[in-house]
Amino acid sequence: MDAEIFGLVSIEDLLLLAIDIVYVAVGLVMLLVAKGFNDLITPYRIDEQLRDHDNPALGVALCGYFVGVICIYIGAVLGADILGVPTWGEFFKILGLDIAYALMGIVALAVCRVVVDKLILHKFSVEKEIIEDRNVGTGAIEAGALIASGLIIAGAIHGPGGGWDTALVFFLLGQAGLVGYSRIYDRMTAYDLHDEVECDNAAAGVACGASMIAMGLIVLNAINGPFVSWMVNLTDFVLYTVVGVIALMSLRKGIDWFFLPGASLDYEIAHDRNLSAAWIEATVSISVAAMVFAIL
């Protein structure tokens, strides 16, 4: 009777359920902390933009930011690897470390926003496009980059054997990979990404943002798991990144042939501003990257 309640649920199960509930509650707190931090580092008020100005571009970007934060938090929590029921001292020690990783991740995502502004969408001001012009395409690319960065950070901190130094190195490498991928993506399309996005082409932004999420999943697969050695882990990172770029670029051609027969994906996005075509590219790219992550 001491070990079970009505012979159905053990006390240990209830304690583990209580721990899970605490983790979910802390995750919600992390979202509020992330929102407050975002308010502090931006010259605009999020609540004012969303409530009074009905800014859809900021709403899209903010959703990507929140998903990125939760990706990092989940990566930290899964990396804790709690076996059995810990003592309260052990639990709060692990929880404190998870929170510390999540807070550092929030700061890292602020760095990612600067990377988007200065290196990915470097031909115009991202803040101006989102706040003044309410450009949904720009918001979608920032959202995609933030989610991709959250996935990369989650992979960097997930496995045992690494530490703050490995997490930092792979975050920086991941950012470099996203920047490089964005440049290749721009070159491989038949249109100028900056011109289309600056002209309020939401379809171009959605397609590019989703493609960056797919790239983030592929990089996550490369760095997720235990840290073996710099040689092994860096080799995996380079190999998966190169193969991922080739696969995603080839996949765009496959979308033309199999999912949009008789049409050109680039033409539909650039000329017709066809959001349906953009969502098809987004869905196929992320789905294929998710399968790669789950299977390989």
Task: Give an overview in words.
- The protein is mainly α and 296 residues long.
- The protein has helices spanning 11-41, 46-52, 56-80, 88-120, 126-132, 136-158, 164-188, 193-198, 202-223, 230-259, 265-270, 275-295; strands spanning 4-5, 9-10.
- The protein contains twelve helices and two strands.
- It has a two-stranded antiparallel ribbon.
- Helix 1 packs parallel to helix 4, helix 4 packs across helix 6 and helix 10 crosses helix 12.
- 40% of the residues are buried.
Write the layout of secondary structure elements.
Elements: E1 4-5, E2 9-10, H1 11-41, H2 46-52, H3 56-80, H4 88-120, H5 126-132, H6 136-158, H7 164-188, H8 193-198, H9 202-223, H10 230-259, H11 265-270, H12 275-295
Antiparallel strand pairs: 1-2
Rg: 21 Å
Poorly predicted parts? none
Q: Helix count? A: 12
Give the N-to-C terminal Cα separation: 45 Å
- Beta-strand percent range: under 5%
Q: Fraction of residues in helices?
A: over 70%
Structural class: mainly alpha
Question: What integer is the average pLDDT?
Answer: 87
H and E order: EEHHHHHHHHHHHH
* Widest β-sheet, arrangement of strands: 1-2
Q: Which overall shape is indicated by the principal axes computed on the Cα atoms?
A: globular
DSSP strand count? 2
Largest pleated sheet: 2 strands, antiparallel
